Description:
The protein is α/β, with parallel strands linked by helices. It is built from 7 helices and 6 strands. It has helices at residues 21-29, 41-48, 75-84, 87-104, 115-121, 155-175, 245-254, and strands at 3-8, 33-38, 55-57, 108-112, 127-132, 192-195. Strands 3-2-1-4-5-6 form a 6-stranded parallel beta sheet, sandwiched between helices. α3 (75-84) crosses α6, α4 (87-104) packs across α5 (115-121) and α4 (87-104) packs across α6. The longest helix has 21 residues, at 155-175.
Amino acid sequence: MARILFVWELGMGFGHLSPYIDIVRTLRRKGHEIIFAARDVENADRVFARDGVPILQAPLSVHRVANPYRITFNYAQLMHNTGFADLTDLFGRVKAWKHIFQYVRPDVMVFDHSPTGLLASRMVKVKRIIGGSGFLIPPAETPLPLMRYWSKSDADKIRKSEQLVLNTSNKVLQALKQPPMNNLAEMFQTDAEWLLSFPEMDHYPQRKTGNYVGMFSPSEYGEDPVWPAGKGRKIFCYLYNYKTLPALLKLLNRSGNR
Length: 258
């Protein structure tokens, strides 16, 4: 039987955990060993404790990022804002992931929103799967495609920001005696991918091919939606309590939709 390590490094909430509940339970029933390295160990334990899944703390950046991008136009700028522009910080986290991999000794690894884990996994010879919404798995383009494709952006600034992240990543790989990447898209090339979404909801509408598998959410969780009366379109929002949330809700309420 296989030992399978699930890896979650960035993001908030249960959206990086709940899609894997049925998969984890099915794999355990078949005799496989499951370990979860999670950003939020409290939520991970709430989801998987009754299934007996060991939870490890994912290595995280705890330092304030210098010169963060206020608006991130592509995944490379998101990586910049989460520690990929700081060589010392990135090197420490990659080594920490390497030690987790050596400790767990997995046969298969599943990555959800985990760029540092993906970078560290390049030095481990095991099968790798990348999963998550389209937002988390950018198409293999250079530079990485825009997430805010509808907004005006500075193409030269985007190229320079991506080159900085690539250079820092390659310096870490060089220090660990690993071959460099030719471009940042190589980081997301794994043995398989699960796009937990649908083409109509992909954050990258220009994606030409993708393994869209829909959602894996278990049936016993959640409730059936009760939509407000009316004839408007149904809008489902997955939000958290950020500063401009009230303004967004007022705007949606005035739209005439449900």
